[in-house]
Design a protein that fits this description.
Strand order of the largest sheet: 3-2-1-4-5-6-9
Distance between the termini: 131 Å
Largest sheet: 7 strands, parallel
Number of helices: 16
Mean pLDDT: 81
Shape: elongated
Strand content: 5-15%
Structural class: alpha/beta
Helix content: 55-70%
Oligomer: single chain
CATH topology: Rossmann fold
Amino acid sequence: MTDASQIFDYARKQFNDIAEDVERHFESVAGQLRGYLPVDTSFVRPPPPPRRLPPPSTLQVAQRWMLRHQALTTAAVAFVVTGSIGAFVFVRSRDGKRKRRAKRSASGARTDVVVVVGAVANPLTSALYLDLERRGFVVYVVASTSEDEQYVRSQSRIDLLPLNLDLVDPFAAQEQLARFKALLEREHLAFDSAEPHHLNFTGMILVPDTQSTIASINDTSSEEWSDALNAKVLNTIATTQLFLPTIISHKAKVLLLTPSVTPALKLAGHAVESTVYGALEGFVSSLAAELKQEDVSVSHFKLGNFDIPSVTIKQRRDGVPKPMLRATPLRKLHDSVFDALVASRPRRTWHVGRGSLAYDVIGNWMPPAVIGWMMGAGRRPAQAVVEEVREEEMVGSQGSLTWEKIEQEA
């Protein structure tokens, strides 16, 4: 054995002795620890920290506060409700008492011009243009016949004038309308030393007579259909076309007034009236879309039941029973028309008159079977209603008698 191998064996022996000493030391320490610790003790993981809840939202804080202060919350709610009702009543009463008058020039002359197109002698139309004249407008009523012109002049109002418009002859109608345009363009003097002023074309009001006799489609001849569509639809469209350039240049407003109770329900025997109403509604919708690009407002007034004084007096004289439900005063319609004429951005659709909005919703959302049951289909023949309502009264009152019977049956 060489010296190198002896040295290597000696080093290995020393290393093994040191390792055995270290191992015996750790075993003795472990034995002492086992003597101090219980044998069945196991490691237990500490519990996780409690989860923090997110902060309450504003709604939760408000709900908790209201639960803690129920008496104060009840008093606050009662105060808000009563205050809102009081404010609504106050605003409505103030709005009803507000004076609505057209603008005048510095010299006191009338400057706003309104054109009314419709059945001249109809009580609703005549009451409308007379009210507009009283409010300070210069009112021109389109008269296509000499009888209509004489009827307008018989009202004896200085600023209520007939506007002759021959729709049968387009060239004559253009010449007549050219005179109206020249009237708007030239200067006017209220008196000799007054400051000159121009007339402002404020709006055109279309009041077509959409009423017709109650008859089934089988009993309505083609001539009656043609007369109704020509007189009530085509004349309205032709008149509007003639005035369109003037309307666009003056940014005048266009208002269409049509009774909507019977057409909304689409009752049997009212095919002509429903067809005329649908045609006019489609026309005014397209007209509004086209004139919107020219910054011209178009409004559709869907009328309900109104109390027209002249018609009411005639009905009482003829012994017509008083309706169970009170009709809307005619002043409500006049105020709404004035508001639409002077508003910068009037609403697209106006529901004015009792039953207008309610029957519109019913006709659009309820099934026809339910509407027929509400109207008492099968209980009373339609001919009986025709015999009870005189035709001239129904036409003169814009169908107010028909609406009253609808509401009584409903």
